[in-house]
Structures are given as structure tokens and as C-alpha cells.
Amino acid sequence: MKAGGKGGEYLNQGIRGYILLALVAAIWGLAYSLSKPALVLIDPFTFLEARFILAGVVILPFIKLKEFEKRKVFQGALTGIVLYLSYIFTFIGLSIATITATGFISSLYVLWVPIISAIVARCLPNRFTLLGIILAVVGLGFVMIDRDLVLGFGELTVFAGSLCTAIYIMLVSRLTGLQNPFNFSAVQIWSITVFGIVAILFKGEINWQSLNNPTIFIAISFNGIIATAFTIILQNYAQKYVSPSHTSTILCTEPVFTALFARIINSEYVRTSVYMGGCLIVCAICLQAYSAMKLRNSLSIEN
Fold first, then answer.
1. Quick check: pTM over 0.85?
2. Distance between terminal CA atoms of the chain?
């Protein structure tokens, strides 16, 4: 079979996957700038629960009831639980640690994904992936570098959140090709909503009245509809064509987009080191993309 046949079609889908994942990272970066003013006025548990309730409602019209199966529901719930744990650990850590430390440590899933993949497959990542990991981690270090970066309880909690994120990416890559992406996303969102309710009951405090504030309403609407429902669907679709290691590398551009939108929307000062780190991360993505294209071209030519 020629490279321009099914192999070329799959290559185009892979490129589309990279673009969609970059869009996901950009939306997450924008969500931070929109959420920051709201989180001053509302507690994070209420904010998070309202976000996922809205996302769950938004995705309802897209699901296909006939395609629900017990096994698929269990798989979606499992990934939802892991994703919820990543949110909880990160929020707890953020309440103790600095934003800089939280941003860097939470992005370390770019390192954990290929390590977990290598352990599961019992083989080392290829040289492009290894070099991409190194560049991405160093780049994130430049983006999030801070003199006060020390490891305490808060940082270790965020560390646990980054591990959960890596496991979530692995689970999505393994399971998303086996089921309807809308159903899969819906089960994840509903699972997070249920566990959020349980968390709020244990916490014993919720403030729904604060949702009337325009700043909070806009932030939750954007987070629920765009940054949750829309991005989860995009990620589940894109990961059909992009490997876990490459997915984690592309998504680690989130802090770069965060800094960019913080500068534009919140008028925050962006250090030169952020631009340096962003360049390294882009180089890492190019390496990963080149590696994927080279592999797929060789496979399509052989077939």
C-alpha cells in the first residue's frame, strides 16, 4: 500500500489530533485567567461542583443511550474518578503551596506518562520521546521557575495530582477507541459530579447564592461548557490518533498559554524565562510530532 492511502489518511488525523490537543491546552490556559477573579469570591468546592453539573447537562443531548453498556459505564466512571482525584489533589496542594510550584509540579505528568508507558510495555521510550521529555521538563522549569520552589506537604499533594493526571491520560488512550466519545465523556463528567457532591457533604459547606455574581457566572459557564465538556470530548477524540507520551507533551503547553492570557487579560508581567521555556516546549512538541510522523510513514510504506 502506498503512503498516500490509509496511512496518509491516518497521518492527517494525527495532525488534526495535535491541533485539537493544542486547542485544549489553550482553552485550559484561558480558563485560568477567567477563573482567578471568581475564586476570590467563591470557594473552590462549590466552583468545581457547579462547573461539572453544568458540563454534565450540556453533554446530555449528544449521548446515545443504546450504546451504553455496563462495562463501558464502568470504564468511563473509572477514568472520571481518576480525573476527579487529580483535581482534588491539585486544589488541596494549591491552597498550601505557591501558584508557581503548583503549576510546575502539576505539569510533571509530561514525565510520568512515558515512564508509566515504558513500565507497562517493558521497554524504553525512543530517543525522540526521551529528548522531548527532557526539553519539555526543562521548558516547564523555565516557565515556572521560582526561588521559593521547595517540597512540602502542599507540593507533595500536587505531585500526587500530577500522577493521577498521567494515569488519566493513559486510561483515555487505552479506552477511548472502544466507545462513543460523547458517552465516554458524559460518564466521566457525571462521575466527577457525584464524587464532588460526596466531597461537599463531607466538607459541610456550599454557597450557591454566590453564583448570582456576574464574574462567577461567566467563569463557571466558560469552565463548564468550554473548558470541561468541550475539552474532554476533544481530548477523547484526539487521543484516538495521538499517543499518551505525545498527548502529555502537547498538553504541557498549558502554562505557556496561561502566561500569555494572564498577560493579555489580567495584565500580569511575563518574565523572559517564560518565553524561553515556551520555545523549549515547542521544540519538544516538534520532536514528538516528527517521531510520530516518521513512525507512521514507515508503517504505511511497509504495508
1. no
2. 5
